[in-house]
């Protein structure tokens, strides 16, 4: 197990920025998939409301 | 109930606030740092954590929004790359100016007043311009031209036409088939970088209108290219603050989860809502931000905590109203489009 606190500040910062980047890409892909499934019925509902 | 060391209520608050900011960020290409950082400060987080986490959040949101704008063909990478060069130099010069003012003991006051005046002036200009051009660029069909499409000369602001008339070589072609001097692009990037370095903000609220009014880049491409640039400035800022322990993932993660969803809606809305609406919302939001910062400055100066709370409420209200207006206009435009299609079919 790697002790995060024992890493140098630059590596810690790199890991944090990397984690944010990974979360951003995962969210982009995840919400993208959700949009493909959910968007057409939602748009149809808005247009017909 | 706690998750990752913070309460579920706080997580939901961050997700909700992130959603509003995401809608604004995806729609305008700005609004992350000047909304999130003051909110975190008022919530009691240390300045280092508020600024660092704000930057990490802006970085993550910019990544997501840039990917979306890339899919819509609204990022001019050549222009973005040049803007990054000019902006980086400008930011450094701006920081030197801040350190000089700090030595003189004038930094806080000068920066605060500059921030309020600049936000207010741009907000007034954009709102006035949008009100005066109301109906003229009301194409009703959105403004989602791709980066490679030619734009109508009537859509280019007069000031941009005047600036573009100065042809100092080398000239280059940017989005919309516009010919512009390389020195103009670097000059605008340097000036906006200078201001963002001086004010300690991402600078989207300066760069986006500067790209539109001074270079003549179509609004959607200005938004997409600005976001591309923020990926770099936000990433570097988050890294630097992360080295000092200023990035708290328990704040950034839920904010990002909300904003990723909001940014998707905001980015998609730029292809549905007409240009006049975009400009007036942008102007009103800047004016709201200007008033909020003025209250905060006055609160700090007079030692009145209540003014800081009013400032926080104004930021939240402005984010809620403007993001709500974006969603409302999008739904309205979609319904109008649907009705028009039905009428034509009949």
Automatic annotation (TrEMBL), chain A:
It comes from the Archaea. This is Uncharacterized protein.
TrEMBL record, chain B:
The keyword Cell membrane applies. The chain crosses the membrane at residues 6-28, 49-67, 79-101, 113-131, 180-201, 213-239, 251-273, 280-298, 310-331. The keyword Transcription does not apply. GO terms for cellular component: plasma membrane. It is a multi-pass membrane protein. It is found in: Cell membrane; Membrane. Keywords: Cell membrane, Membrane, Transmembrane, Transmembrane helix. Belongs to the 4-toluene sulfonate uptake permease (TSUP) (TC 2.A.102) family. This is Probable membrane transporter protein. It comes from Natronorubrum sulfidifaciens JCM 14089. The lineage of its organism: Archaea, Methanobacteriati, Methanobacteriota, Stenosarchaea group, Halobacteria.
